[in-house]
Inverse folding.
């Protein structure tokens, strides 16, 4: 059973499951130029599209997989800053970690803290032996972050007609 929200020893943030009340945050995040460039256009521009994104993505994943994307929010204001969590893709044998952060919060180490918290929480709960990360080759900050988390380059993929780097971390 996954927790609805938790803190890892992170002092600046907590993670929680997305809810249907997060539509404005989702619209802002998925239309950020960094998201559009490195993750892709999800065609989420209205409240209804954001609601569908939340229901068919994270909410469905929590139920089907026991994990998914979580909102990480600042303490003590509880302002949403980004998303971080594990995704189960049909073409990968193991889940991959995904993350994105709003521009005003970048460069402060918050995504690293969120990723550490997700890895600690989900590994303790779900006992994965391998996790992946998929990164655009030109996204150097993301490559540095994932390497700092202990992931190593595995191979190049063609994902959504774009070159994508696959990183892996083994826990056995």
């Amino acid at each position: 059973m996954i927790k609805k929200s938790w803190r890892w020893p992170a002092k600046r943030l907590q993670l929680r499951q997305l809810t249907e009340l997060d539509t404005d945050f989702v619209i802002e995040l998925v239309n950020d130029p960094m998201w559009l460039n490195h993750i892709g256009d999800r065609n989420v521009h209205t409240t209804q599209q954001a609601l569908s994104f939340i229901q068919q993505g994270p909410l469905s994943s929590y139920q089907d997989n026991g994990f998914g994307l979580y909102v990480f929010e600042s303490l003590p204001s509880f302002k949403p800053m980004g998303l971080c969590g594990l995704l189960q893709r049909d073409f990968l044998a193991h889940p991959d970690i995904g993350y994105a952060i709003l521009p005003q919060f970048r460069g402060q180490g918050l995504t690293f803290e969120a990723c550490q918290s997700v890895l600690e929480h989900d590994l303790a709960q779900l006992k994965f032996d391998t996790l992946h990360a998929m990164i655009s080759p030109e996204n150097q900050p993301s490559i540095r972050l994932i390497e700092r988390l202990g992931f190593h380059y595995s191979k190049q993929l063609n994902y959504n007609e774009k070159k994508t780097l696959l990183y892996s971390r083994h826990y056995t």
Summary: The first strand starts at residue 5 and ends at 6.
